[in-house]
Amino acid sequence: MIEDMVGEGLAPDISRLAEACDLFQEMLSAGVTPDEFTYTVLIYAYCREGDIKKAFHLHDEMVQKGFLPDVVTYSVLINCLNKQARTREAKRLLLKLFYDESVPSDVTYNTLIENCGNIEYRSAVALIKGFCMKGLMNEADRVFDSMLQRNHNPDEAAYNVIIHGHCRGGNIQKAYDLYKEMVKLGFLPHTVTVIALVKALFTVGKTDELSHVIANILQSCKVTDAELAKVLLEINHKEGNMDMVFNVLTEMAEDGLLPKSG
Questions:
Q1: Which residue intervals correspond to the PPR repeats (predicted)?
Q2: Are 194 and 226 in contact (CB under 8 A)?
């Protein structure tokens, strides 16, 4: 019966939900195992009636039985939480989709984010960071691009995260392009981001881009970070760019950071 309802373009309404649930229990008692489709239909029905507690009970049950909820299941649950102004729980569920290894890889994160318009902006940034940490840069780019498409302009944190991710992932040109875009918007790269980008550009031999980044650092930032200063000195020394080495040392002295002797 449950499948028949959906086949007719319907989900169980309040008048038939009890009947559907009774049938569901009969299936269990008879040893008939419900599938993902059956669980999702019932979860949707409970959510439509505002009974999020029972909806999550079914979600937990289907996971325990080895069934993986799909994008429809999660979209339904997140939408229901949003409608009840439970945005913090919706955010946690959204982030669970990344951190929980049991979540299927074909979940459409953009769709889920679209359905979570009331969740804090930082949820998307957290997803980007998570994808970058796992090396899933295509997914990170999709989330980043979806922010732009919905006029949620990425901030300094988002740019730093995705630039560093692309440096780790080996897409150095993409990282450099995002760096230029970031600087043009007036954002300041974090030291960790700058170090990752400078090292990556040097490693792949992009000398023009490297010179541009270093010149920008000396022009717009104070060289007060010992690790950054060390990287700048080592790379310029290896490049034989003694003028730039002198500039870095001068900037370090002016900013109160002198290289250790020895």
A1: 35-69, 70-104, 120-154, 155-189
A2: no
pTM of the entire predicted model = 0.53
Residue 215: φ, ψ to 5°: -60, -40
Please report the pLDDT score of residue 164 as a whole number.
92
- Measure the CA–CA gap between 51 and 56, rounded to whole angstroms: 9
d(Cα 153, Cα 28) in Å, to the nearest integer?
A: 49
pLDDT digits (tens, 9 = 90+) for 146-159: 777 766 778 888 89
Which candidate, 72, 70, 73, places its Cα nearest to that of 55? Answer: 73
pLDDT score recorded for residue 240? 60
In our burial notation (b when 16+ CB lie closer than 10 A, e otherwise), range 105-121 reads eebebbebbebbeebee
Distance CA 7, CA 246 (A): 74
Q: How far apart are CA 134 and CA 148, in angstroms?
A: 22
* Count of C-beta atoms within a 10 Å radius of residue 53: 8
Q: What is the pLDDT of residue 68?
A: 77
Contacts by residues 16-23 (CB-CB < 8 Å, ≥ 24 positions apart): 17/45, 17/46, 17/49, 20/45
**Taking the mean position of all CA atoms in its chain, how far away is CA 81?**
20
Rounded Cα gap, residues 169 and 246, in angstroms: 32
Angstrom CA distances, 169 to 40, 80, 87, 165, 189, stand at 36, 36, 32, 6, 18
8 Å CB contact between 233 and 223? no
Q: Which domains does the chain have, with CATH numbers?
A: 1-119 (1.25.40.10)
Contact predicate 216/247, CB 8 Å: no
Cα separation, 230 vs 184, whole angstroms: 26
Q: What is residue 184's predicted lDDT score, i.e. its pLDDT?
A: 92
